[in-house]
């Protein structure tokens, strides 16, 4: 299909999940990233980060994004997968839009990558799935801050299997130039103590690369499970960087949402 007029997917949740002002947003991100401790660690091939409003999950997301700053010039392509919350999708939806916008600027969609997965039956084209979706969008300002320049492969994951997700990841796995980001929160609306117990168990499954999470454990269970299958195939090692919930950040503790930050690395080297 020939490329027509460029189409921009505008920010949908600026001023709701994160500041709409570029100046305030950039300042908030720098503050969040500066408040994380990131000792030398193997270079991540993939990460899992939460996708709530920054006041709730921003510190947990920052803990894993800060680890990418040492490789800001090496990553040139980001595969970004998250669950659909607003529009039902069968498969993994890519956009027709040619760029995604945030208050920090536009990110080009990687057309070459989309062409490489267009033959897969689980890959569909749907701007409607992406238009209101926050799970991918809230990751973009972090990526724009910790990386220099990159293209984006945005995949809104609906009803599909972990194996179907893993197949897409395999097609685009690439080398050091490609980073995989999975957007997912953990448990939802449980009392604080119950959430800590369940999220701790979920974290143990993730660290064991056990691809059997359900959607009560993680709203992004399908893309997470797909990554875990691929990580096991590539013999990656998982690390937990942070595990908290909204009761630890900005919410009350009667009904909390769980947030985890994880990296997946070949573990063949160190940060420097």
Give an overview of the whole structure.
The protein has 272 residues and is of the alpha/beta class. The chain has a single domain (44-265), classed as Protocatechuate 4,5-dioxygenase, Chain B. Helices cover 33% and strands 24% of the residues. It has helices at residues 22-34, 54-65, 111-117, 127-130, 134-137, 140-146, 162-171, 192-207, 221-233, 246-249; strands spanning 8-9, 44-49, 77-83, 92-94, 99-102, 105-108, 123-125, 151-157, 178-183, 188-190, 237-245, 256-265. Strands 2, 3, 4, 7, 8, 9, 10, 11 and 12 form a nine-stranded mixed beta sheet that branches. Strand 5 (99-102) and strand 6 form a beta hairpin. The chain is globular and about 50 Å long.
CATH topology term: Protocatechuate 4,5-dioxygenase, Chain B
CATH architecture: 3-Layer(aba) Sandwich
Q: CATH homologous superfamily name?
A: LigB-like
The main β sheet shows up as:
9 strands, mixed
Q: What's the CATH first level? A: Alpha Beta
- Sequence stretches where pLDDT stays below 50 over 5 or more residues: none
Mean of pLDDT: 95
Number of strands: 12
Order of helices and strands: EHEHEEEEHEHHHEHEEHHEHE
Please report the distance between the alpha carbons of the first and last residues: 43 Å
Number of helices: 10
Question: How much β-strand is present in the residues?
Answer: 15-25%
- Whole-angstrom Rg: 17 Å
């Amino acid at each position: 299909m020939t490329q027509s007029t460029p189409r921009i997917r505008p920010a949908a949740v600026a001023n709701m999940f994160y500041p709409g002002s570029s100046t305030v947003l950039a300042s908030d991100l720098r503050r969040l990233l500066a408040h994380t401790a990131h000792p030398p660690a193997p270079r991540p091939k993939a990460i899992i980060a939460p996708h709530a409003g920054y006041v709730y999950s921003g510190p947990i997301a920052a803990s894993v994004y800060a680890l990418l700053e040492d490789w800001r010039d090496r990553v040139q392509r980001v595969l970004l997968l998250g669950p659909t919350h607003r529009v039902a999708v069968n498969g993994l939806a890519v956009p027709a839009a040619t760029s995604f916008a945030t208050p920090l600027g536009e990110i080009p969609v990687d057309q070459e990558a989309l062409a490489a997965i267009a033959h897969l039956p689980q890959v569909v084209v749907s701007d409607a799935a992406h238009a209101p979706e926050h799970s991918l969008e809230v990751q973009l300002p972090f990526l724009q801050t910790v990386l220099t320049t990159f293209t984006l492969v945005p995949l809104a994951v609906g009803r599909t299997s972990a194996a179907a997700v893993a197949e897409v990841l395999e097609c685009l796995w690439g080398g050091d130039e490609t980073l995989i980001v999975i957007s997912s929160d953990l448990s939802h609306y449980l009392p604080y103590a119950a959430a800590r117990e369940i999220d701790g168990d979920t974290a143990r499954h993730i660290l064991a690369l056990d691809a059997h999470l359900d959607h009560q454990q993680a709203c992004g269970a399908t893309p997470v499970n797909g990554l875990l299958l691929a990580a096991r195939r590539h013999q990656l090692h998982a690390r937990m960087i942070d595990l908290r919930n909204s009761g630890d950040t900005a919410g009350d503790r009667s009904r909390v949402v769980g947030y985890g930050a994880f990296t997946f690395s070949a573990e063949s080297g160190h940060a420097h």
